[in-house]
Structure formats: structure tokens, C-alpha cells
């Protein structure tokens, strides 16, 4: 009864699994079909979004030609009424054109038709909508619409095309053209999407309030939450969403999925029934499968089960296991024929019964081998005699070429104690001991040892020849295989050229064979090679590298190696001077490289070093030539030959690294602070932590050099953690008493992009006891823009705890002001390269004001760095900057000096002037 219940429960579970599998397969097909349709929609979406961009920026952009005319006629001077009217006349004759106007600077100089819009002339840019100011800020075409013109309430909605007039990056004015909404939408051809079976929705983000504004839609009530979307910028964010009008799955497809699930479930049920039937048959076979069919003895599994039963009996004595193997049994069996083999096998049980008089177990693990378990008290001599006698009993007689031959069974025995382990382990250990002993007596052992030597890395192993034909062929095969493995280990698989290990091996061989022979090393690096992979494809990049290798093979031949990516090293055995050889290498790349119809001019850097002047080992030579290449990159030189200056540079870097490691380990690395002034009250409410490494001569190493070396040598995380911990500890113990409400610490890209970086940084801050709301982490603008996607998650997690993020070196030229709202930062730090130009360049001063205005719009605070004079301070203050950091107020200073400095500024001690949260 219990067995029947268990069987029914098992079948219930199987049915549930079948239903789950059917449902899963249906879902899988559903997602696959949906994925195909989404892929198709994605392709359509890309085409239409590109079409919209081309229409907006090209065909429909009537403002561009007028802007060019305005630039030629001198948009910044003169009376534009006459020439602008003539230029715009053909445009105004078109029914879809509603307004054409010209701004000179920030003032509207002309507005046509004059009868409708003449009253706008003379108005300032700020009197119009925000979109006109946005065109001035971004200095590129801005498209807005559909909108209603404020000064023409009777007009229908229009699209505004605002084309700035720019000279050398300076804004001179702009041309605005308003086109009828229906005309623009007709030109975009969105109704074609609906004709193809897609619902569509074109919408944009209103830049002032971030609201979604629908430009056009096929059905206003349609839900586009599951639609495919494509985002583009004009330069405000526009989005085109499409989805099949009937849903991603049609009614026929849904019905097909239902029938598929039903059929799949029926198939699984049939298979389950067959599997159950097979399982029941297998159980019956297993019950009868413990015996060897040829001899009637136990087979291997049956013997193990019987021996386990013996060993588990309480009070049983020791058991001796004997293993017998007839070497060459398979060949002998073929010689004697199946009938004689069958007779021999059938005689085995009788032979065992006749020879053994004590309780025993016997099995035939495989053809030609037998195993016997004997329960009898025996000493070592008795076991040996028993084994010899039974081996004779198992003797196999073979007739070869009319002569009788006898195959003797070889043996191995071992004592097996009850409770000492299972039968399987005992049998396996006995057979293993047998084959280990046999292996020591055969040439295969030597062959195996040579293979082991190869695995351990020895390269002077040779496989001997043997008198045995099969062993000799095996030895030859191993020799061929070894050469193939060496080829794979020392060759670049893509370019069929030597790799770094081959370079080290070949160089070591050159030095070992003749230490007095001189040779030269040349390292060639393709400048900015990654841009070809990014702009074209990896295949194009590989073709370029193939041609580079082809050209380099001329001077280097077989001594050419691909060390890393696009870096190649060649060995020259000629006596040609390095300067002449480098010039020849540069000439190799004078002509562009052609791939298909594309032509690529390449620029290379070359580094050289000589043996033995610059190193007497392969690794030393490689290190020195890579140092020379690195120096060429940092100095901007096209070619560098390793010299004493580089030796001194390497020694200096080694000294800096040694001092840096020791000072971090000993806790003696200095952290200085530079106060930051809040202009509103003149108080010192914040400071930036800066690392200072003594040079041992009364001075300090350059902070930039220290950080660069730390980044190249894997110390930047340790260095950053040290500075952050010291700064946080200082803030906890001294900050509030000194009037500081925040401390800033620079963050390296390596600290930010490692796994769990946010958790690690938060753990350091919490361990110091500092309040996270008083900590600002600074990251350079270039690092953030280039790694925004990877860094955003970590920065958002840090900001959620109250930590502020400052964007350092802002203004160098990476990011657009239009994208400030998307950056995960709270503070902008204006770079010195911008602040030092504001007194001599009105454009730079205007840029500073634009940055401050955009920062205010996005709720960001602004800190100006590098302020050194009163004139700079006054100009920056007039631009609306809230905070100033620079030598004009205070230089970086040690902790003790900072305490004294802030103590003297007693007015700042009681003020609450922390950096407000963005």
C-alpha cells in the first residue's frame, strides 16, 4: 500500500513538472517571438529616428542658410532690415513659414513678416522663451516644437528652428524660423509607421521643467510603456516610441503557443511513461547483473557488494585480497578462438573450488583479470605461496604457430581489515598498487616521466627511440605533439607572430650562446590605435595590425614579437646605429595603410635600447625599452633611445615608490590642507586634503608625479585610502572646532571603478568616525565623462549617505553645459586653466558666467580654483561664483599650520558656512 502511494505521489510530481516545463517552453517561445518583433521594430525605429534628425537638421532647417547669410553680411553690425528682408523673402512666400527673425547679439534686429511681428524688434533675448537662451549657450542648432508663438496668439502651433551665428566659438547672434506644425509632421513621415502597423509617439523633454511633451502620436489613448524607444537630441532630448498596433503577439501566435504547449506536454508525458517502463526494466536487469555471464563469478559491482557484506559482519577476522591479471589476454583470446575461450572461462570456478579450501569470494572485474577475497589467518610467506599457486591454476594455454605457449597471471595482494574502509576503496587500492608495480617494470614509465617533465616546464626533453615498433611510433607522436604545443605557447594565435614568452626565450638564447654579441631592441607603438577599433571595427583594426606586422617584418624578419595589443618589439643583429635604424622604422609608416577602400595614416612611437649597455637579461631589456616608450608618450616625442637620463628617471621613480610605500606603511605620509573661502561672508568653511611626500632633501616630490606613479604601480587605492582616512579623522577631531564644515578628498578612477568601491569608501569614513555629511569626494571631469556609466551607480550610492561629489578640473573641455543636469555631482570646481584667462579674454569670462548660470539652474554649487590675485578674485566674484580656492587666500599647509591659520581667522570659527547640499 505504501509503495502504491509513493508511486502515485511520484506521478503527481512528474505531472506538475511536465506542466511547468510546458509553461516554461511556451514562455520561452513567447519571448523569442516578441524579441524578433522587437528587433524588427528596433531597426524601423533607428531608421525613422535618423530620418527625423536628418529632416530637422537638414531639409527642414531653413534657418541655417539665413544664419550663414547673416554671418557673411556681418551679423554683429549694420542695419539688417534691408538685406535680411531680401534674404528671407523667398522663404516667406512659402505657406508653411510663419516667422523669420534675426538676433544681433542678444537683441532682435529683424522680425518678418513685419506687419505681424515688427513689434518684436529691439527686444532682448531674455524677453523670449528659454529656448532662445539655450541656443546661445550650446551654440548649435536648437529645434523646439510644437509651440505657440507668444506674440501671435491666432497662429497655429509651429516648430522653431534656432540657428546660432558663431565665430571662433563666440556667440554673435541667431536666426529663428518658425514652420507650420502640420507641415513639419507631414515631412517627418510618421504616418508611414502607422501604415506599417505600428503605433507611434514622438515626444520631447521640456528643458526648463523636465516635463514630457508629446509632439505627435498615432493614438492618444495608447499605452507606450512596453514600446521600443530611441532617444536623440536637438539638443533637447527627443524620444520616438513605437509598438505594433495589435500588440507584440498576434492572436494567431497566441493560439499557436497554446497548441505548442499542449503538444509539448503530451510529448513529455509520453516520454515519462517510456522512462518509467525503462526504469522498471533496468531495475530488473540490475538485480540480475551482479554476476559475470561467462564464468558465473561475481562481476566487479557484485564482488564489491559481497565483500562489503563480509567486512561489515561483527567479529569477523582479517580478509586478504588477491588480484590476478593475465597480460595480453585479449590477443590470446583471439588466437584460441571463442569456443576455447568459453571453455577456459567456464573452468575457472571449478579450479578455484579445487584449489581453495577456506571461505572465499571470487570475481571477474574485466577480461583477463580475477579478484579473490580469502578469510584465513596467513602470514606473508603463506600469502605469497597462495598467490603463486593460484596464478598457476589460472594459467592460460595458447598455441601460436603450432607451438604451445602459456600465459601466466601476474598478481598483487593486500590485507584488508574489517571496518578499515569500504570494499570499493580496498579493491581500487589493490588494483592501483598492481599497476604501479607493473609500470615500474615497463618503458611506458619512462615515457610518462618525460611527459611529466614537459608539464613542469622543461624544454630540453627528448623522446627516445625504442626497438618495439609501437613504442617507437608513440615516441615520435609525442615529439610531434611537443613541437605543436611549443608553437601554441610561443605564437600569437591571431597574427602568427612571436609573443612575449617567445621574445624572452629568444633573447635569453641570444645572450646564452654569445654574451659578447651585441644586438639592439626596438619597440614600436601605434598611436591612438584604439580609435580604429571604436570608429570602425575589430576586423579593420586587425587588418591594420597585419599590415603593420608586414612592414616590420622587413627589418626584423623572424625576430619580431607582439608584446601587447598594438605594441611590437623587434631584435636587430646588425651594427647599424640606433638613430639610423629608428629613422628607417619611421619611414616604413610614411605611407598610409589601406584596408579595402579605406586609407589610414598611422603615427608610431619608437623606443630603442642596446645589449649589453642597457641590460644583460631579457627582463631588464624589456623593462628598459618599455620605460623608454612610456617616456616617449609622456614627453610627446616620436622616438626615444634609452639613455642615462632615463636611468636617472627610473631611479628617481623607484626612490619615490620606495618612500611612498614606507610612508604609507609607517603612517608618516603628510596630508596638507588648502582652505576654501565662502564669498558670502569671507569665512573659511571648507578645505581640500592634498598629499605631500618629502623628498629627503628638505623639499617635496610633485604631487602629480606621486599620484601618477601610484596609479601605474598599483598603489593608488592604498594611497587614496590613506589620505581619505587621515582627512576624515582630522575632520572628526578638529573640523568643527576650527569652523570647517566640510573636507574635500580627491578620488582616483582606480578607487572608483573597482568592485564594491562605494561600500569600501563608506567603511573607511565610518571607521574614522566622521560624519558623511561633512565629506566631499572630488573626481576629475575627464574620468567621470569617460566612465560615467560605470561610475554613476557608485556615486549615487555615496550621495545617498550625504556625501557630496565635486567635479574637479571643470572647464577643461570634456562635458557640455547642456548635460550638467545628468551628471551625478553636487559641486563644480572651475579649473585654473579657465580662471587665469578671465581678465584677458571676455569669451572666457562669458563662459564662466554661463557655467555659473547653468550650475544654478541645475542646483550645483561652484568653486573657482587657482585664484592668485585680487583682480581675479573680484572678476570671479562678479561672475556669481560662491566659493574660491587659491593662493590669493591661502596656500596648502600642514595640519599644524592650518590650525594656527584658522585660529587667527577667529571670525570664521563661530560661523556656520558649510557647503550647502545641492
TrEMBL record:
Pfam families in alphabetical order: EAL, GGDEF
Residue runs in coiled coils: none
One term of GO molecular function: cyclic-guanylate-specific phosphodiesterase activity
PROSITE patterns in the cross-refs: EAL, GGDEF
EAL domain location: 653-906
Alphabetical list of InterPro entries matching this protein: Cyclic-di-GMP_PDE-like (IPR050706), EAL_dom (IPR001633), EAL_sf (IPR035919), GGDEF_dom (IPR000160), Nucleotide_cyclase (IPR029787), Rev_trsase/Diguanyl_cyclase (IPR043128)
Domain GGDEF: 517-645
Name of the molecule in the record: EAL domain-containing protein
SUPFAM superfamilies: EAL domain-like (SSF141868), Nucleotide cyclase (SSF55073)
Amino acid at each position: 500500500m505504501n509503495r502504491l502511494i509513493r508511486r502515485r505521489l511520484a506521478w503527481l510530481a512528474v505531472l506538475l513538472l511536465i506542466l511547468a516545463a510546458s509553461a516554461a517552453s511556451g514562455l520561452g517561445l513567447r519571448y523569442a517571438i516578441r524579441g524578433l518583433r522587437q528587433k524588427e521594430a528596433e531597426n524601423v525605429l533607428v531608421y525613422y529616428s535618423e530620418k527625423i534628425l536628418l529632416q530637422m537638421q537638414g531639409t527642414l532647417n531653413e534657418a541655417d542658410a539665413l544664419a550663414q547669410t547673416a554671418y557673411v553680411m556681418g551679423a554683429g553690425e549694420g542695419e539688417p532690415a534691408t538685406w535680411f528682408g531680401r534674404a528671407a523673402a523667398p522663404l516667406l512666400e512659402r505657406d508653411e513659414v510663419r516667422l523669420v527673425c534675426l538676433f544681433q547679439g542678444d537683441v532682435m534686429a529683424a522680425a518678418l513678416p513685419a506687419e505681424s511681428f515688427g513689434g518684436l524688434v529691439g527686444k532682448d533675448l531674455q524677453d523670449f522663451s528659454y529656448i532662445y537662451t539655450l541656443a546661445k549657450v550650446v551654440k548649435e542648432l536648437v529645434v523646439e516644437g510644437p509651440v505657440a508663438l507668444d506674440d501671435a496668439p491666432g497662429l497655429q502651433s509651429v516648430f522653431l528652428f534656432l540657428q546660432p551665428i558663431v565665430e571662433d566659438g563666440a556667440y554673435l547672434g541667431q536666426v529663428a524660423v518658425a514652420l507650420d506644425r502640420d507641415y513639419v509632421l507631414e515631412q517627418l513621415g510618421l504616418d508611414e509607421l502607422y501604415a506599417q502597423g505600428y503605433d507611434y509617439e514622438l515626444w520631447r523633454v521640456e528643458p526648463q521643467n523636465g516635463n514630457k511633451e508629446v509632439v505627435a502620436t498615432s493614438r492618444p489613448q495608447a499605452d507606450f510603456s512596453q514600446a521600443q524607444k530611441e532617444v536623440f537630441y536637438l539638443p533637447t532630448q527627443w524620444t520616438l516610441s513605437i509598438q505594433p498596433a495589435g500588440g507584440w503577439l498576434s492572436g494567431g501566435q497566441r493560439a499557436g503557443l497554446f497548441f505548442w504547449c499542449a503538444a509539448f506536454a503530451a510529448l513529455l508525458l509520453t516520454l515519462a511513461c517510456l522512462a518509467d517502463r525503462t526504469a522498471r526494466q533496468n531495475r530488473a536487469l540490475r538485480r540480475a547483473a551482479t554476476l559475470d555471464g561467462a564464468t558465473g563469478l561475481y562481476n566487479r559491482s557484485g564482488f564489491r557488494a559481497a565483500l562489503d557484506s563480509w567486512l561489515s559482519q561483527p567479529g569477523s577476522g582479517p580478509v586478504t585480497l588477491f588480484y590476478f591479471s593475465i597480460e595480453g589476454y585479449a590477443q590470446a583470446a583471439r588466437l584460441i578462438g571463442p569456443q576455447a575461450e568459453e571453455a577456459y572461462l567456464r573452468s575457472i570456478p571449478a579450479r578455484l573450488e579445487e584449489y581453495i579450501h577456506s571461505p572465499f569470494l571470487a570475481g571477474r572485474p574485466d577480461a583477463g583479470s580475477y579478484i579473490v577475497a580469502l578469510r584465513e589467518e596467513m602470514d606473508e610467506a603463506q600469502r605469497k605461496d597462495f598467490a603463486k599457486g593460484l596464478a598457476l591454476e589460472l594459467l592460460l594455454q595458447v598455441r601460436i604457430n603450432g607451438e604451445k605457449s602459456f600465459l601466466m597471471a601476474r598478481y598483487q595482494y593486500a590485507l584488508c581489515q574489517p571496518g578499515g574502509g569500504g570494499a570499493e576503496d580496498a579493491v581500487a587500492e589493490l588494483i592501483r598498487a598492481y599497476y604501479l608495480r607493473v609500470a615500474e617494470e615497463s618503458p611506458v614509465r619512462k615515457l610518462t616521466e618525460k611527459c611529466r617533465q614537459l608539464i613542469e616546464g622543461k624544454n630540453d626533453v627528448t623522446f627516445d627511440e625504442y626497438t618495439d615498433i609501437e613504442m617507437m611510433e608513440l615516441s615520435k607522436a609525442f615529439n610531434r605533439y611537443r613541437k605543436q604545443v611549443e608553437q601554441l605557447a610561443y605564437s600569437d594565435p591571431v597574427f602568427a607572430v612571436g609573443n612575449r614568452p617567445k621574445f624572452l626565450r629568444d633573447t635569453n638564447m641570444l645572450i646564452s650562446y654569445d654574451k659578447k654579441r651585441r644586438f639592439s631592441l626596438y619597440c614600436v607603438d601605434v598611436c591612438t590605435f584604439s580609435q580604429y577599433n571604436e570608429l570602425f571595427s575589430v576586423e579593420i583594426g586587425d587588418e591594420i595590425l597585419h599590415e603593420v606586422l608586414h612592414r616590420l617584418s622587413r627589418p626584423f624578419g623572424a625576430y619580431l614579437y607582439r608584446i601587447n595589443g598594438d605594441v611590437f618589439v623587434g631584435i636587430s643583429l646588425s651594427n647599424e646605429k640606433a638613430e639610423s635604424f629608428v629613422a628607417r622604422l619611421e619611414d616604413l609608416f610614411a605611407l598610409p595603410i589601406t584596408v579595402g577602400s579605406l586609407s589610414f595614416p598611422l603615427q608610431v612611437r619608437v623606443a630603442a635600447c642596446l645589449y649589453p649597455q642597457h641590460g644583460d637579461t631579457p627582463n631588464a631589456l624589456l623593462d628598459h625599452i618599455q620605460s623608454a616608450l612610456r617616456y616617449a608618450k609622456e614627453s610627446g616625442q616620436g622616438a626615444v633611445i634609452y639613455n642615462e637620463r632615463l636611468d636617472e628617471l627610473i631611479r628617481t621613480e623607484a626612490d619615490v615608490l620606495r618612500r611612498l610605500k614606507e610612508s604609507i606603511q609607517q603612517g608618516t605620509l603628510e596630508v596638507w590642507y588648502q582652505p576654501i573661502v565662502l564669498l558670502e561672508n569671507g569665512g573659511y568653511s571648507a578645505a581640500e586634503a592634498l598629499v605631500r611626500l618629502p623628498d629627503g632633501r628638505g623639499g617635496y616630490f610633485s604631487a602629480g608625479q606621486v599620484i601618477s606613479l601610484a596609479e601605474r604601480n598599483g598603489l593608488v587605492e592604498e594611497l587614496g585610502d590613506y589620505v581619505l582616512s587621515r582627512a576624515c579623522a582630522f575632520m572628526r577631531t578638529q573640523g568643527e572646532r576650527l569652523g570647517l564644515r566640510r573636507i574635500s578628498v580627491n578620488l582616483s578612477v582606480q578607487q572608483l571603478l573597482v568592485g564594491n568601491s562605494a561600500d569600501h569608501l563608506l567603511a573607511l569614513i565610518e571607521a574614522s568616525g566622521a560624519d558623511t555629511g561633512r565629506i566631499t569626494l572630488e573626481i576629475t571631469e575627464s574620468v567621470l565623462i569617460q566612465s560615467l556609466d560605470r561610475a554613476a551607480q557608485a556615486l549615487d550610492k555615496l550621495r545617498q549617505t550625504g556625501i557630496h561629489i565635486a567635479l574637479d578640473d571643470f572647464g577643461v573641455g570634456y562635458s557640455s553645459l547642456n548635460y550638467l543636469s545628468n551628471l551625478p555631482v553636487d559641486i563644480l570646481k572651475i579649473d585654473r586653466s579657465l580662471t587665469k584667462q578671465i581678465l584677458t579674454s571676455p569669451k572666457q569670462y562669458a563662459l564662466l558666467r554661463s557655467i555659473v548660470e547653468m550650475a544654478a539652474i541645475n542646483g550645483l554649487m561652484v568653486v573657482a580654483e587657482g585664484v592668485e590675485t585680487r583682480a581675479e578674485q573680484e572678476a570671479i566674484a562678479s561672475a556669481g561664483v560662491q566659493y574660491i580656492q587659491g593662493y590669493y587666500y591661502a596656500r596648502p599647509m600642514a595640519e599644524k599650520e592650518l590650525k594656527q591659520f584658522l585660529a587667527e581667522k577667529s571670525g570664521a570659527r563661530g560661523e556656520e558656512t558649510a557647503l550647502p547640499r545641492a
